[in-house]
Write a sequence for this structure.
């Protein structure tokens, strides 16, 4: 998944981006609302992590404008405001969740997972497709009773493909979702991760098809 992190504290931003990158997410960093607007004008994001007090304005105004423009990208607000009234106001403005600073990274990761599950309409963690079971929380696929672990970007790639079975994703779209703008990657990187994921699907009726000159899609037949 690709995230936009809007945070002017450079040390905190580096730490959050590094932690989320370990989970296989691509993270673009904006230190101001102006930078955030520039990122949003050129890229699509699965999640926005938004600070409130920024050098060129208030994150709450950014959030309100984001919702007025009918953008449905989930937003988790990172705030030092602990009062119930402040948290309620954030949710009423359009935040999908919030986390109070200072926070534990494990809690942030859990809130990210929960918001993304809600975004995709998945109240349950486990998902099934063809003859396999997928658990994003444990990063595992189960095929014919055999559990196979997915590594970070294998996991994120499978989540993307599973979000639209039979939908063709181009290499460019997959790169945009898997890597941040700061990462120098080539189309070959996508081929490498697709190859690794295909090996994890060996023996399953689910498979990743190459649509020559276009991209990849996840297909499968039910049991």
């Amino acid at each position: 998944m690709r995230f936009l992190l809007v945070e002017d504290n450079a040390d905190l931003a580096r730490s959050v981006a590094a932690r989320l990158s370990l989970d296989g997410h691509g993270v673009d960093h904006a230190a101001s609302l102006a930078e955030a607007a520039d990122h949003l004008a050129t890229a699509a994001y699965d999640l926005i992590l938004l600070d409130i007090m920024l050098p060129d304005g208030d994150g709450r105004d950014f959030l309100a404008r984001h919702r007025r423009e009918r953008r449905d990208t989930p937003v988790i607000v990172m705030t030092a405001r602990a009062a119930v009234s402040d948290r309620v106001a954030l949710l009423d403005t359009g935040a999908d969740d919030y986390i109070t600073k200072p926070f534990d990274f494990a809690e942030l990761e859990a809130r990210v997972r929960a918001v993304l599950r809600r975004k995709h309409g998945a109240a349950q963690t486990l998902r099934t497709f063809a003859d396999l079971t997928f658990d994003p929380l444990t990063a595992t696929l189960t095929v014919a009773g055999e559990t196979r672990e997915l590594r970070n970007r294998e996991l994120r790639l499978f989540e993307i493909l599973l979000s639209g079975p039979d939908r063709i994703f181009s290499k460019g779209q997959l790169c945009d979702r898997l890597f941040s703008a700061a990462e120098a990657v080539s189309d070959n990187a996508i081929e490498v991760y697709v190859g690794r994921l295909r090996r994890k699907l060996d023996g399953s009726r689910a498979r990743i098809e190459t649509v020559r000159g276009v991209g990849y899609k996840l297909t499968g037949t039910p049991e």
The chain has eight helices and 13 strands. The chain has a mean pLDDT of 88.
